Amino acid sequence: MVDCGRDRILGAHFVGHASHELVNIVGLAMKFGISASALRGYVYAYPCSLPTSSIS
After folding, report:
1. Which of the chain's termini has less CB crowding within 10 Å, N or C?
2. Range 38-45 contact pairs with CB under 8 angstroms and sequence separation of 24 or more
3. What pLDDT was estimated at residue 49?
4. Would you say 9 and 2 are in contact if contact means Cβ atoms under 8 Å apart?
5. Cα(7)–Cα(37) distance, integer angstroms
6. Contact criterion met (CB below 8 Å) for 1 and 12
């Protein structure tokens, strides 16, 4: 949820695989005042959510 007038993230809701990783990104953005457009424009290397069996 975003306040479009101020480009401020107000909250988020995730359902599905890797949601536990995405919520941390949004939480940090909210804590440190990162704008929604800045968060949207970033290129992410993670979340990767690899199954542990594929890591040697």
Report:
1. C
2. 39/9
3. 58
4. yes
5. 7
6. yes
Closest by CA position to 14, among listed 49, 38, 51: 49
Query: What DSSP assignment string belongs to 6-46?
Result: TTEE------STTHHHHHHHHHHHHHTT--HHHHHHPPP--
More confident residue, 53 or 11: 11
Using pLDDT thresholds of 50, 70 and 90, give the confidence band for residue 46: low
> What six digits make up the tokens of 23?
């919520």
- Distances in Å between the Cα of 12 and the Cα atoms of 16, 17, 21, 29, 52 are 13, 15, 13, 11, 27
Quick one: average pLDDT of 9-37? 89
